[in-house]
Amino acid sequence: MKVLKFGGTSVGSPENMRAVMEIITDREQKIVVLSAMSGTTNALVEIAGLLWKKNRDTAGMSIGKLESGYKQVVNELFNFDENKIEGLKIIDASFNTIKSFTSGKFTQTGENSILAQGELISTQLFALMMKENGHDVKLLPALDFMKIDEDKSADTQFIRQNTAKVIAETGQATYYITQGYICLNAEGEIDNLQRGGSDYTASLIGAAIDAEEIQIWTDIDGFHNNDPRYVENTRKIEQISFNEAAELAYFGAKILHPQTVFPARVHNIPVRLKNTMNPSDSGTLITSESSGAGIKAVAAKDGITAIKIRSDRMLMAYGFLKRIFEVFEAYKTPIDMISTSEVAVSLTVDNTEHLKKILDELDKYGSVEINENMSIICIVGDILGEEKGFASKVFNALDGIPIRMISYGGSRYNISVLVPNSHKESTLRALSKNLLNNGH
Ligand code: ADP
Ligand code: ASP
Ligand code: MG
Q: Looking at residue 37, what DSSP letter applies?
């Protein structure tokens, strides 16, 4: 069985939902993972933000605006009155849940419940539309099988066991529809897989059912060799390896949630990226196979903080790095890049939740300096066999760019540089022009 995921734009209007229905209804049994309609999760994030600030009136207005938009969707999506009534009931139930959190003390569970409504609405409306059009469709409630543990990592064992169980309990259908993004946490409360998490839902389900393929359908024809939001004339990549795609997704290529590739790589399931607006295009295929040596693509990850710890005690000492790393471990804060010199170490983090406490503790080991608003630029390819000219090609391409850190040799697939965010776009453009030869 295949797992197909459709993103926000793909289900962003009644017309687009119909296009998705066309794509999936080939009579082959499949699981279809849907995101919220485009703009919805952003609006829900904003509503939750207002409620945290007790700005209830403005939150109420935003809720009203979102709700009336959905009423219009229902009106356009269904042909028969009974389905319009059913559609309005779906909308009512979700908006009553949202409104129930607008009084009393606002909590994290309140926020997570609000954020979940986008996917709950899109999947129910979509399944009802498919029914209206005579298709054999059933909903699989993601909250019955999608789960994260105390560390917010996917609980793959639980997901494997319960996905099979929920499918069996739901019964036979040609098309199963389920919610992306949402899950339960270790406390059994509603939670999510972070922004863009529907891609990750699809690959977790794919791994859980040993799917023959995972397809990520979006609003672009596949993985491009540079970020099309900042650079013109980017080119689509036909085929790329799991390792290369994982590096690009982890280091900011928005087309894939950072963790999407891991479950597929473990179970060796091909991932295909496809364009909902142009379904006949071949898209990009991600498999275990290397697509050959050479530089494939670049990506950028924003919101990076660089931390430099300088200490004369580091000179000739062992155990210094261990003590530094233990501070980050204690606060469950992953480190992305690292570089060392005789008496200093620089590293980067993107999670700044515990930054203040981390800095206080690091202070014990030496003088600490931070740079905020940095971006990691990640250059990905299969470097093996290209070692001789690789670094010089990259640095020539980056002539004139102020580089704060460099990481090379950590893997065969990437070289990363840290630049101020204000230089991100010029760096991506320089790499496009001088390294990827995008022809501008
Ligand atoms: P969806 O809502 O379908 O999940 P996203 O907006 O999350 O879609 O991801 C698709 C977008 O990712 C594209 O429209 C494009 O702007 C952006 N993007 C960033 N980097 C890349 C890349 N390297 N290749 C393709 N698209 C990219
Ligand atoms: N709707 C969620 C978001 O906007 C999840 C997703 O689209 O993948 O982040
Ligand atoms: Mg996405």
A: P
